[in-house]
Structures are given as structure tokens and as C-alpha cells.
Amino acid sequence: MNFLRWQVVGLSGLMFLLAGSLSINAQPDRFADVVVDTAALGNSVFMRTGAGGNLAVSAGPDGLLLVDDQFAALAERIEAALVALPDPAPLSERPLKYVINTHHHGDHTGGNGYFAGLGATLVASQPARVRLLARAPSPDTPLPVITYDAGISIYFNNDRLRLVAMQGHTDGDTAVLFEQANVLHTGDLFFNGRFPYIDLDSGGGVSAYLASQEQMLALIDDDTRVVPGHGPLASKQDLLDTYQMIKKTRRAVEADVDSGLSLTAIQEKGVLLAYKGFAWNFITEARWLELLYRDVVANGSGA
Ligand SMILES: [Zn+2]
């Protein structure tokens, strides 16, 4: 590889997940302690910690490309981190050309305005653009200018990035496969080792989520480095483990609903012991069961 590829991976924003764009003036302390930090993973792949959805970066002769951009309040820190990549170069010499939004949530798109202002072209699936437009605070809000229905490829830094439109977390998700680097950014179609958040109110659903995970599993191999929307860097096996957890916990909730159990009774039973470790402070065991329950009641079991 004659170019450098970086991944910038931010630790989860946890409770900030749905906070949307935040003004640094209105919320001076919320991100005060967040350090956008870098760790090497080998083969010019690096990991960064911050807050909000995980980021991936391609840095090379064509310039910079960013997959997701976290919160507005972190944009300047992300920019500083981009400038400081190996062979530090100001953005005037190594421009940020594209920002790909994996979906519309604010912890993945909060930096859009800032980075579009630096000249980046925003790219997203058509349904994600519709949702970004619907919540745009003003007519001047920068929006994706390149969209796609099924997918699109971007040839950049001697790689082919395959953007594949999917659904499940919302109705406008994208998985990004860096073919040469063998890196997959899943967006929020994968929370590594955690119960996922599935945005049922933005067109997400458990069946579609599982179908998208199957599609992603078919795209990758055992050597693929998988950047989840939230959580630490992952492998194909990690994705498979989470997929199986979702399938099995959903099947259990379907059976409970079929036997007439209430949501409260299902929550009292809890998930199988093997899956209790997937709980985290944003999606607790009770909240995951509620999400599955809502999905099963809305779509029927076996949906
Ligand atoms: Zn999300």
C-alpha cells in the first residue's frame, strides 16, 4: 500500500447518542474531557477515541475522506487530528474531499456543517438525506450533494470504497467497504458487543437489521477489520456473535409474546444468561427487551 490509511474510532457517546448537533457555547462542559486520540493497529491502521459514532479516515495522495463526523462540538478537534496524521499537512495541502454519512443521527453527522464549510462534499443514501433535510435547522444547512438508492463506489487513495445502502438501524443506513484495505465501516448496523439501538421511529426494524448484518457478513472475510458504529474495533466473528445474540433474544421474545407474556413479565425474566454482558448504559437489558417487544408486537412473530 503506497498510501496511509487511518481509522479514527471514537468511543461511544453513550447518553449523547441521540443528542443531535450541540452548540459548544450552549453546552460548554459536555465534551470538555473528550480527547480525540490515536492508537496504531498495524498496517497503517489507527484507532481514535472521541465521543459519538466511530470514525474511519482515508488519508493519502488524493487527500482525506471521512466516514461519519461525530458531534459539531468535536469538529475542530477532529480537524486537528486529521492535520496531525503521519506526514502532518494542513488541509490546504491535503484537503478533506468527502464526508460520508452512514445515517442521519446527530452523533454521526454533527460535524457536517463544519466540514462542508471546509469544502468537503457530503455523501449519503437518499433516505438519510431526506431525514437530514427534515431536521435541518435552516435553509442554509449543508446537506449531502451526492446520494444513491442501492449504492455507489468512490475510487479514492488507490482503493475502491463500496457504499452499500441498507436498512435496519434507520431506513437510510450505509455500510462502507474499503476493498483494498479490507476494512468495513458498519455505521450503527453493528454495536460491537452491545445491545444495538434500533430506531423504530426512523424506519428501523429488527428483521431489516438482521438482514443487513447478513449482507455485511457476506461482504467480508476473517481478516476484515470491522469498524462498528459504537464499541471497539471488531472482527467478522464479533459481528457474527452480535448477530446471533439478536436472533436468539428476538426468538425468545417472540415465544414469550406468543404465550401471552406482558412486557413487564418479559423484562422480569430477562435475557439468556449468555447475553447479559451485551447490556450497557444506553441500551440496558430492559430497554433491549422493550425494543424487541415493540418490534414483535408491530410486525408479528417471525417477521
Ligand atoms: Zn445511529
Secondary-structure topology with pairs:
Layout: E1 4-6, E2 37-42, E3 45-49, E4 56-60, E5 63-67, H1 75-83, E6 96-100, H2 106-109, H3 112-117, E7 121-123, H4 126-134, E8 151-156, E9 159-166, E10 173-178, E11 183-185, H5 206-219, E12 225-227, H6 236-258, H7 263-269, H8 285-299
Parallel strand pairs: 5-6, 6-7, 11-12
Antiparallel strand pairs: 1-4, 2-3, 4-5, 8-9, 9-10, 10-11
Helix pairs in contact: 5-6, 6-8, 7-8
The protein binds zinc ion.
Please explain how this structure is put together.
This protein is an alpha/beta fold and 303 residues long. It has one domain (4-247): Metallo-beta-lactamase, Chain A (4-Layer Sandwich), CATH 3.60.15. Helix content is 29%, strand content 19%. It has 8 helices and 12 strands. It has a 5-stranded mixed beta sheet with strand order 1-4-5-6-7. It is elongated and about 65 Å long. The structure holds zinc ion (ZN). Zinc ion binds at residues 103, 105, 108, 169, 188. Zinc ion is lined by residues 103, 105, 108, 169, 188.
